[in-house]
Amino acid sequence: MAGRVITFREAINEAIRLEMRRDPTVILMGEDVAGGARLPHVEGRGEEAWGGVLGVTKGLAKEFGRSRVLDTPISESAFIGAAVGAAATGLRPIAELMFVDFFGVCMDQIFNQGAKLRYMFGGKAKVPMVIRTMIGAGFRAAGQHSGCYYSVFTHMPGLKTVVPSTPYDAKGLLISAIRDDDPVIFFEHKLLYDMEGEVPEGEYTIPLGQADIKREGRDVTVVAIGRMVHIALEAAERLAAGDGISLEVVDPRTLSPLDEETIINSVKKTHHLVVVDEDNPRCSLAADIVALVATRAIEYLDGPPQMVTAPHTPVPFSPALEDLYVPSPEKVIQAVNRALGR
Amino acid sequence: MVAEIPRDKLLWIYERMRLIRAFEDKVAELFAHGLLPGFVHLYAGEEAIAVGVCAHLTDRDYITSTHRGHGHCIAKGVDINAMMAELFGKATGVCKGKGGSMHIADLSKGMLGANGIVGGGGPLACGPALTAKVMGSDSVTVCFFGDGAAEQGTIHEAMNLAAIWKLPVIFVCENNLYAESTPWFYHCAAKDIASRGSAYNIPGVLVDGTDVFAVYEAAGEAIARARRGEGPTLIEARAFRYYGHFQGDPLTYRTKEEEEEYRQRDPIEQFRRRVLERNLLTAAELDAIDAWARETVEAAVRFAQESPYPTPEELLTDVYVKYP
Question: Which of A170, B208, B242, B299 is the most buried (most CB within 10 A)?
Fold first, then answer.
């Protein structure tokens, strides 16, 4: 029997909805998460204007009311910090940082406050909050609305980072993130919102720190993050059809904690490694995963590990350039060939 | 005002102010002898602000603090032994030696942390206030910040957010006249900080931060207003820090005359004069508190010095509740 099919956007909405039903301490806040606050013809009629800038949180204000679904001013420091303080004192806030590129205006509240409170207070505080944020190029949104930057947050002790690639994973991982007692940054690739997939209706969780093998294979391990999972799967499809090369596509799903064992075990099987990462290459997850394999399993490698990443540039506007910026299946295939020494 | 404060509250006020002074003077001495790691920012001279405000709070109310946080901790009732041990970096410290002076905190007392980031506490303070609002409790949160932090965007964002959501936050600007070495009339474009309340449509009150009764009265009104659900208030309390920005500060930016002028208005001496003039407390009672404060701090130093350092495994714990 085929399961129910919904979009990535709907899967995220459903995860928040189920958790808000289950736990009255879960609240949602961010810019335009409902929209039209205090307008008599919007809020006054129990309506919302937007339900999120791309409609991800639609209907939540209607179901849970404006006291739990809070439109904020464009003051990321204030509301992210408020989420940290609320999390430390009994709520489970979900704060939406509209685009990850905006972290520059509120990073202090994330990394100096939220991430460090527990350690600085000797373990006597917990900060159970989620920051949902949009990532990724492909919207022709140029330099300040298209980055990934999950590597920046993964670098920081105290934070957990989650990058789902499918509707199923998005729902299960977000429910886990909301229930988690540590601050979690949840990265949503905006090009995935319309992607459809089978998603069970009820609650389920996917543990943070558990990778998923999205395609089994024998020749090359391709670790791919977020939307890049689909780029890797397309490359795998073409290689299987053409040269008969078999890729194993590993989706880490969470970057901190990182499921090192699944990656290492796959490399031990295939003896080759390619990492596909839409983030910029320096100090990136791609570099980190290559370093991980080099330090823990170099004797298993039969060829040079390869990284397929965005270049060391901001995201360009022109479609002609942006399409070059994002890793493509062709680039993955070239990297696979280099890894195999072909 | 003075006569309206219950006798046990007057005793508590004096006790807390004395304890802060004794603690800070002792920390200055320990630091000068090289016995404390890191650096410390001392609160002596500003006691009336923390104590006058916290006199209205219970353990269910929260405060956020600053890098100059020892006074706030003591006013909020954090254990002196655990505080001193924290400054020594000992395992018995209130944060197990992992925070130190600049991150000293005790959530069980509603003390949401000193803060190494100037202005960092403003947004945080909106958090417990939001929790109170969502959970329907009458808990309030006080955000202490300095005149330097008054120029941080975070403080303005937080005041605006608290105002539009009518959050029970009291913003208390401790204007000690200098942001590090920079005078407040230079760094602040406004004629005073209190008047900025009007920008957020909230009351802005300027009080003498050396007068604990003035602070007590202003804070009492602001806290009652917050508990009634009427939203935040901004209080600017002017005082003078006797020590430098940090211990070791050569203090080349201020004059002896200025310091002398403020010493004449010492908050603890002012309190003594006024309660003795009105026969509300006796000199013997106050002297006994002086002795108690000194002994309490000496005992805290002994406790801290005799306590063990954290074990090596403590380096790696308390980063996460659970990982992976």
Answer: A170
